[in-house]
């Protein structure tokens, strides 16, 4: 079921986690926290927080558009980049990013904030690679990885 990606919510989710971490956060950790917030919100309210498309990558599921925002990727549209630059700034190392403005609470619903708080409260003290390993235990990740490794069906000759 497709959801509509909100670059504003994704930016504020990234900003929220950077603020919670003291102003700067590891990018992979933040992306895992977004995953846990989305998963929580989807299971409880029937929709994710950011509505992003998730990709199955080596370190687990990654919210594609949210990753682009955290990196200020060339894939961003002008409006997305302009908006994100008001709130977050990637570090030169590309491993972390920083919050440069308070979270715009108006962008997030009460249930969005609940999901972000849940993710931070449950996983905020966990290191990025431990979070990656944890995502590999979830059935949604296992099912996706199994499908990726299946051989394509071929008609008998």
Strand tally: 5
- The end-to-end span amounts to 36 Å
Give the SSE order as H and E letters.
HEHEEHHEEHHH
The best one-word shape is globular
Strand content: 5-15%
Mean pLDDT: 89
Which bin fits the share of residues in helices? 40-55%
Q: Enumerate how many helices there are, as a single number.
A: 7
| Count of discrete domains | 1
Low-pLDDT parts are: none
Q: How large is the radius of gyration?
A: 16 Å
Instruction: Let me know the largest β-sheet.
Output: 3 strands, antiparallel
Structural class: mainly alpha
With strands numbered from the N-terminus, the spatial order across the biggest sheet is 1-5-4
Structural write-up:
- It is a single chain.
- The chain is mainly alpha-helical and 157 residues long.
- The chain has one domain (7-149).
- It is 52% helix and 11% strand.
- It is built from seven helices and five strands; from the N terminus they run αβαββααββααα.
- It has helices at residues 7-20, 27-45, 64-71, 78-85, 110-123, 128-135, 139-149; strands at 24-26, 54-57, 60-63, 88-90, 96-99.
- The chain has a three-stranded antiparallel beta sheet. The protein has a two-stranded antiparallel sheet with strand order 2-3.
- β2 and β3 form a beta hairpin.
- The longest helix has 19 residues, at 27-45.
- The mean pLDDT is 89.
């Amino acid at each position: 079921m497709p959801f509509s990606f909100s670059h504003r919510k994704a930016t504020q989710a990234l900003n929220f986690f950077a603020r919670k971490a003291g102003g700067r956060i590891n990018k992979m950790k933040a992306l895992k926290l977004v995953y846990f917030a989305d998963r929580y919100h989807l299971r409880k309210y029937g929709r994710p927080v950011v509505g992003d498309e998730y990709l199955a990558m080596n370190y687990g599921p990654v919210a594609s558009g949210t990753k682009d925002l955290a990196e200020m990727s060339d894939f961003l549209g002008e409006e997305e980049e302009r908006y994100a630059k008001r709130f977050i700034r990637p570090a030169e190392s590309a491993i972390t990013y920083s919050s440069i403005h308070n979270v715009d609470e108006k962008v997030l619903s009460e249930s969005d904030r609940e999901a972000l708080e849940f993710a931070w409260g449950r996983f905020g003290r966990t290191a990025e690679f431990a979070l990656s390993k944890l995502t590999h235990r979830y059935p949604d990740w296992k099912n996706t990885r199994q499908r990726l490794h299946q051989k394509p069906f071929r008609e008998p000759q």
